[in-house]
Fold:
Amino acid sequence: MNFSYIRYCQYLISSQNNYTLTNLADHLEKISHDQINRYLKNIDLGT
Structure:
């Protein structure tokens, strides 16, 4: 998958109102809401 935590953070910083995964997936080619959700659920933030 061509998605990373950095890309997600950049999306949150640049988004003005709509922070949903569905909105993010609408702006990325070949990446679905479910793929982003699974990725974020499984990353280790070191906490």
The two ends are 24 Å apart (CA to CA). Residues 23 and 33 are 8 Å apart (CA to CA). The chain has one domain: 5-42.
